[in-house]
Amino acid sequence: MVAALAVMVLLAGACGDDDATTSTDTTAAGGQEGGKKGELVGMKGTTPLTKLDEAFKKRLLGVDPGLKDFNYGAESYDAVMIIALATELAKTDGIAMANQINGVTRKGEKCTSFKACKDLVAAGKDIDYDGVAGPADFSGNGEPTIGSYGVLEFGDDNRIDDSKTEYKIANAPPEADVPQQPAQGTRKGDGVLKIGTLLPETGSLAFLGPPEFAGVDLAVKEINELGGVLGKPVQSTKGDSGDTSTDIATQTVNRELSEGVDAIIGAASSSVTLTVIDKIVNAGVVMFSPANTSKKLSTYNDKGLYFRNAPSDILQGGVLAEVVSEDNHENVGILALDDDYGTGLAEDFKKAFEESGGKVVDTIIYDPAATTFDAEITKMKGNDADAILLVGFEESSKVLATMIEKGIGPNDVPVYGTDGNMGNALGENVDAGK
Questions:
Q1: 236 has which bridge partners?
Q2: Domain ranges of the chain
Q3: CA-to-CA distance for 5 and 2, rounded, in angstroms?
Q4: Is the fold of 194-311 the same as that of 314-432?
Q5: CATH 3.40.50.2300 fits 314-432, yes or no
Q6: How many Cβ atoms are within 10 Å of 66's Cβ, its own excluded?
Q7: What is the chain's pLDDT, residue by residue, as a tens digit (434 residues)?
Q8: Based on the number of CB atoms within 10 Å of its own CB, is 250 exposed (0-12), middle (13-18) or buried (19 or more)?
Q9: At 109, is the secondary structure helix, strand, or coil?
Q10: pTM for the whole thing?
Q11: What's the CATH number for 194-311?
Q12: How far apart are alpha carbons 311 and 48 in whole angstroms?
């Protein structure tokens, strides 16, 4: 395993909380019937994930009773909480609150709720907010130095089997903990914290949208029930990010900036973020993603205004490499979509896996908008890999369908996924032939 990563495995249920479950849900209708083995059974993968207790899940369901997955719901909730607490510390919703965001997450008095943290701020105390997604301990560039990952596995019904979920904690290398980057700009606040969202209602990551929207809405609701921020209710406005095949994200950002938002929660896709980040930070507005993982964003010139509480793929690549190595695979093939997320995570996995003694026999980059994946899958089959890593989004179900057809699906060769595709939505799409 990579020397720079300290990883600890927590078996599901090992924390002594029988009611705690992962942020995925296997109660959705559908799946395989009559004991038939699903096409995805045994497929494993990683996603930034903490053990969510039933109380938080019920609160999310109170906002959106139709939730099927909880992926990134906790991170979205915490993003709003961190921004709100930073605003209280700065005593303004202007650009100065960005300078407080990193400090809210580390090296202060521990607190785990908005009320407890707000009371400490009112008493003049430095705080360290550990939210429902766990500790973040932001580096000076606004990203976590610690990450919790769930190792998920599909069961016979083509849904995530929560009983098999394990957790791994990964720490970034010391050199990743860079100095504070001060916010650049002069935007003034008006005393009312206004949050915009840039999250996927449509596009290749639409399955992540519902829990992320619910997390934001729940946080705003609970903050306002406790008196709001700076003595006034937090306002929010909802916006779709779409994906990189559309211009929806730009349209949403333009509208929200015209409405005077102080912070935008999103995007979920790193590639979408990279299309609008300049417009947002040049306006002096905070951009805070609950799901971006591309390492390209770690060193982006963001004027000290971009933050994320999903850990970089440098960490996920190492966790994935350890999972695959622990399963005794030595020769792995990679199928990855052609964007910053796909190629970056493929690179991070390869580096970590080969440092642990394994070999990546081939990395095949595919166009996620392609109508067929026959050529890529035929080439992968010829590599005789003893395991395959699939880094993709919504199109993963189509890639898997071709893999199954050509005899290298999860029932034939061990297949691993990532946060872009590991969820019950993948099983639903496979069942529906999408």
A1: 195
A2: 7-29+50-153+171-176, 194-311, 314-432
A3: 6
A4: yes
A5: yes
A6: 7
A7: 333 333 333 333 333 333 333 344 333 334 444 446 799 999 999 988 888 889 999 999 999 999 988 889 999 999 999 999 999 999 999 999 999 999 999 999 999 999 999 999 999 999 999 999 988 899 999 999 988 899 999 999 999 999 999 999 998 888 889 999 999 999 999 999 999 999 999 998 898 999 999 999 999 999 999 999 999 999 999 999 999 999 999 999 999 999 999 999 999 999 999 999 999 999 999 999 999 988 899 999 999 999 999 988 889 999 999 999 999 999 999 999 999 899 999 999 999 999 999 999 999 999 999 999 999 999 999 998 999 999 999 999 999 999 999 999 999 999 999 999 998 989 999 999 88
A8: middle
A9: strand
A10: 0.80
A11: 3.40.50.2300
A12: 7
DSSP symbols for 13-79: TTTS-TT-B-SB----S-S--TTPPPTTTT-EEEEE---B-HHHHHHHHHH-TT-SB-TTHHHHHHH
Secondary structure letter of residue 300 according to DSSP: -
DSSP characters for 357-374? T-EEEEEEEE-TT-S--H
